[in-house]
Structures are given as structure tokens and as C-alpha cells.
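Lab notebook, bench 4. The sequencing result for the construct came back, and we need a structural model before the next group meeting so we can plan mutations. Quick request posted to the team channel:

Model the 3D structure of this chain.
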Amino acid sequence: MTITPMQQTLISHFGEMGSRWGLNRTLGQMYALIVLTEQPINADQISDALLISRSNVSMGLKELKSWNLIKLHHIPGDRKEYFLAPKDIWEIARTLIVERRKRELDPTLSTFRDALLQEPVNDADKYTQQRVREMHDLMEMVTVWSTELQNMSSEKLSTLLKLGSGISKIIDAKEKFLKK
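Done. Here's the predicted structure in C-alpha cell form:
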């Protein structure tokens, strides 16, 4: 498998960004290769293309599968497992939202709920609970919104994002109307 200079640049960038996104560099590079390769790709091809050990590739593929970012693909007559990323970029985005919510927001919300169920013993605890309630409520809104996004079609998501600052203008107009 030959990687073009354009692909190499993007694979390197994904590797650097992987660590900022909660993945390691190798995992970011692997995912970039899978996303940027039109045909399903197997572990040996990934290992050869990225010059990483087969064992690192195997561990990375397990991690990408646990994030639901890749799909297993079988080629008739070939015993190897091949992998591909969803063709719909919006599906990848929805998957990332869901998986990050499960890994980051849900455990934090659970901790916040536990803290809010405790009886405050002093003013410091009362203040702490007030701040936790505010964070909890914000995170709950984000969770509800992410669920809505998850259930939207790719076309609706695209339209929503294209509205951009137009949504803010609609809200501003509504506020002006209600003040009258």
C-alpha cells in the first residue's frame, strides 16, 4: 500500500491531534489511514503503511472498535479481517459525540448526582453543591442536546450547522419581540 504525500501529511496531523482528542498518536494515525483509504484495509497493511508493530496495530484496532469508529469487513475468499470507517462523515461525528459522552459526561454527571444527594454539613458544602448543581444542569442540557443531534439525519445536522450565527440572530429577534 502506498501512501501519497497528501495522505502522509494528514496522517501525521491526525496523530498529533489524537493526543488532544483523548487518543494516542498511533491511534490517531491509524484512524486517519482507515478514513482516508477508500478500500477496506487489514492489520498487515496498516502496520506496513505506518511502520508500526503488528501488536500495536492489533491493540489500536481493538480500541477503535471499542469507540465504534471502525467496522469489520470480510472479503470473500480471504481469511484476514479488514476494516473501514463509515463513509458518512456525519455518522463518524455522531459516534464521537456518543462515545465521548459515555466516557466523559456520564461519569461526571454520576459523580455530581452523588454530591447533590449528600446533606451539606457547612456553608462550604452548600456553596459547593450550588456550583455542582449549575455544572450538572449545564451538562444535562449538553447531554439532551447531544442525544437530539445523535438522532438527526446527516442532512438535518448539516442544515443546523450551516445556520451558524443565524440561530443567535433568531434568538435576539425573539428577545426584542418579547420586550415590546
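Residues 29 and 132 are 37 Å apart (CA to CA).
Will bring this to the meeting.
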